[in-house]
Write a structure and sequence with these properties.
alpha/beta, Rossmann fold, 7-stranded parallel sheet, two-stranded parallel sheet, 13 strands, 38% helix
Length: 300
């Protein structure tokens, strides 16, 4: 298959590219700056989102497009940062639509990244793909607008899947290395109330679910990319401590985190219990369904 990936040089994009090329697929990475990128078999870098780029003419006929592009949500959420988070996702998705529209034979599927932030936060509710009303906070606003933009491609006869990512676990990238650091210093413990839900997923299952969405044409709309076993923060920390052979004892109060991080602290202090009902209904086999299995694979 010919597969185009925007955001292909990022955390998820790199893991996905490695997997797809190892399966013999040809990957075309859409990037603002293709100069100096590593040479990888079956990978071609295509310039896009610049005044001198023309991805429509540079791309061959595509089987699938995967849109992972967008400003990172890490960092303090100033008004300027929040505007970049939203605008980058909308502009990239609009360009994806333009590329699809220009292709004579349309790709069979667009897999568009999203996030479980769509649901808002709650310590008592369980969310699955049957929930159609987004939450009322910033991330819910961003993801709902992002998904609506991606949905435009359905008018071109393209199947669209929104992969709503949970907390992605990887040894070197994402949030986990930052979460591990206090434990390595023997200062790990509950953060905030400890009762907030962490809906997590191993990076290999992110890659697996995206591939699953590409290959199965009965999957469309939202697809929760989370483990079937979310855990509360206090339990997450205890399992992490056991895996690292470190204590889980030193609490970090809510007000310290909010004061230090600002609004972005909601990613750590507020949570949502998200269930991957659609993945289970369609019999996706999670490589790492439990947190213990995922952390053991990463650290042991």
């Amino acid at each position: 298959m010919n597969i185009a990936i925007s955001g292909g040089t990022g955390f998820v994009g790199q893991a996905l590219t490695y997997h797809l090329t190892s399966q013999g697929h040809k990957v075309y990475i859409l990037t603002r700056n293709p100069i100096g990128k590593p040479e990888i078999n079956n990978v071609t870098y295509i310039k896009w989102l610049t005044d001198d780029s023309d991805p429509v003419s540079d791309l061959p006929q595509m089987t699938a497009l995967i849109n992972l592009a967008g400003e990172t949500i890490n960092g303090r959420w100033t008004e300027a940062k929040k505007e970049k988070i939203l605008a980058s996702r909308i502009s990239a998705t609009q360009e994806i639509f333009r590329i699809i529209k220009a292709q004579r034979n349309k790709p069979s599927v667009l897999v568009n990244a999203s996030a479980i932030g769509y649901y808002g936060t709650s310590q008592t509710k369980t969310f699955d793909e049957s929930v159609t009303e987004p939450g009322d906070d910033f991330l819910a606003h961003v993801t709902s607008k992002w998904e609506r933009e991606a949905a435009e491609s359905t008018e071109l006869g393209v199947r669209v899947v929104y992969t709503r990512f949970g907390l992605i676990l990887d040894r070197d990238e994402g949030a986990l290395p930052k979460m591990v650091l206090p434990y390595k210093l023997f200062a790990g413990g509950p953060i905030g109330s400890g009762e907030q839900w962490y809906s997590w997923i191993h990076i290999n299952d992110i890659v697996g679910l995206i591939e699953f969405a590409i290959k199965n044409d009965f999957i469309k709309g939202p697809l929760n990319a989370t483990s079937p076993h979310p855990v509360q923060m206090n339990d997450f920390g205890k399992i992490l401590g056991r895996t690292l052979h470190r204590p889980h004892w030193f609490p970090t109060p809510d007000f310290l985190m909010r004061g230090a991080l600002g609004e972005v602290s909601t990613l750590i202090l507020d949570g949502q219990k998200v269930y991957p009902q659609k993945a289970l209904d369609y019999e996706y086999k999670f490589q790492y369904p439990t947190l213990t299995s995922a952390l053991n694979a990463i650290y042991n």
